[in-house]
Amino acid sequence: MSGIDYFNELNLKEYRALDIKSAAEYVKKQQLKEIFGSDEELIAEDISDGNLNLVFRVKSKNSSRSVILKQGLPYVRRVGESWPLTPVRILVEMKALQIHGEIYKEGIPEVYHTDPAMFLIIMEDLHPAKTLRDCLIEGEYISDIGVNIGRYLGRVMAYTSDFFLDITAKRRNISLFLNPDLVKITEDLVLTNPYHPEGWGNRMEAMEYPEVRALQNDVEFLSKIAALRDKFNNYPQALIHGDLHSGSIMAGDNLCKAIDLEFATYGPIGFDIGNIIGSLLINWIAQEGLTDQPYQCRQYRMYIMQMIEDIWDTFREEIYNAWLNIDKRRWPSPYLEKILKDIWEDAMGYSGTEMIRRTIGLGYIADLKNIEDVQKRRLADKKVLSLALKIIKEPGDIYKLKEYLKEL
Amino acid sequence: MSGIDYFNELNLKEYRALDIKSAAEYVKKQQLKEIFGSDEELIAEDISDGNLNLVFRVKSKNSSRSVILKQGLPYVRRVGESWPLTPVRILVEMKALQIHGEIYKEGIPEVYHTDPAMFLIIMEDLHPAKTLRDCLIEGEYISDIGVNIGRYLGRVMAYTSDFFLDITAKRRNISLFLNPDLVKITEDLVLTNPYHPEGWGNRMEAMEYPEVRALQNDVEFLSKIAALRDKFNNYPQALIHGDLHSGSIMAGDNLCKAIDLEFATYGPIGFDIGNIIGSLLINWIAQEGLTDQPYQCRQYRMYIMQMIEDIWDTFREEIYNAWLNIDKRRWPSPYLEKILKDIWEDAMGYSGTEMIRRTIGLGYIADLKNIEDVQKRRLADKKVLSLALKIIKEPGDIYKLKEYLKEL
Question: CA-CA distance, B74 to B10, in Å (whole number)?
């Protein structure tokens, strides 16, 4: 596998950004025989809705078949050319899809075509699956979703970590996924800015909350944040997704796939687990604002809690299997327990940072934003922050987490 | 700075190993005007005595001036072609000398010339300085040596870590110093093999010691070793020397320079500090076998203990200054205390692994080997292992360390 050059000027000679016309033509030219007949006419629609990239759905006029074309821009799509950002992120996503896909193909979309010079990927259209976030906001039940997330995480983490890789293979992967530009975005927007009143991108309104001012001045708490930031930057434990919130998971019947892998890097396993758990906890809290049916709220919260337990139990089971079957380093069993305990505690910490940044940082989360009643929304913000603070200061086991939720 | 390719076949077309004749000619051709006059005749002597490389002293026939020429071989010099090892290690040393030298030139030898195609470096001859190990074995007192080691460590660690580097600069450095082949040697020979009875390179005699059998079966202890190994492989905190025992430090009046930087990599700061402290503790214990003068032994032990305190205090002072003056991340002060506490505890752990590998692994250390009385030598081995075990299981502060020494 050839490397990715993160540190020199890019060659953009062959690059041009596509539009709906050229996107359809581009896909047509690839002759994706397993998808489209050679005489089918293709049309594209622009469905870009993330912050960073162009996304087109290219579909047949003659059939229901379609693909997704994702292309990187040399800037942040949502902001424009004033925020330049290397399209190298698409090369990162290509490699991450390849590696995660080789390990556990059920966990990511199928890739049909990649073009490094155009910084684009053509992949499986997961329609009509929705993001897990949309499902959660609408209170839908998806079977086995927690187990499937846990399996994806356990499998890819085991096989990209020291359980399976010797130092040379591991460091080759590390160099492939240095991904400094996107890691910097996470360092800034997730792990730094929300803790400074003047941090770029923060929700101005939230900067006035008394509990936000308090946490921004709580030196013991800020030391915990500093430790989480250091670990995110400096613990290349496994090839993590890097942005695995509920909006990065497509969910449907018998379907659970991670998308948007451009933040992939070698980092702490607990970062991914924490991000998804943090997303789920936000929704758990938001439920009482999203529905006015107390019974429904209670039921759905039980469902979310079960999802969290399923993620962890399945992940744990996969790691245990890796230890039994592929462990290259003869780790003694108390050390396995320590690894798992550390990963859980990291996950608790990063679930806290995810909750905080989604409440007071850039990108106020839909789960909370969708609460129509202003007072209920404010109360939900407050509860999210209170839970995050506790969980970061004293990350306990899953029973402790349940206690914290009861105390809200 | 261009990168180092660790993962593809080397180009050795322009490479040829030098001998005393061609080494002298090579140096002559470089016209090192600051060292030699253009009409001086040069002669070389082979002074290779490390495990890995060719080392020549090239000196003037007309004056006392000389330089050191160090060249990598495509195998381990001491073993021969049956143990191939990439000469890329010399490129690593070049870059590490450059970076450490830019930060703190007093801490490393001056470099006069580098030749990446020939995998060689021409550098300052530190003669008549000796290795710190030789000084310690002979019971010599060297002024300020602890302070100088601490300053070197503090300065280079601060400026190659997150105190000073943003994520892009840091990750560029990480990719430059992946150094998988030499890191693998450390993982195996220092952090793995001594803990397995059949580990390659172990001292056969020591495998029969009851205390060695005990530690090789102590699962709680082995879990601590696993954690130290994981941290060595996976905590790119700063650009460490990677092999900073007392034989890698040249010591003399007003002179303290680290040599042999081919193991340089991004790793935990405590690894370097621990290696040097571990070396010193071995010598502390060995003193009662090396001299039959109890007073002299006691005095020298106080001197070694003072050296350890000077290393730590000066290192700590440098890090504190870095925090005050160059900290890019606004770390809160309790976090600074935590960083320092963690580094000290890491250092205690790695001082333990250094003591163990030097006693029972490959390369039984001269400090112990030089004890002529067999029983005294056996007793010293035992004390080194006993101290290492305690320090790894329960790394306390410096007072705890002194207690452990008293208990021996």
Answer: 10
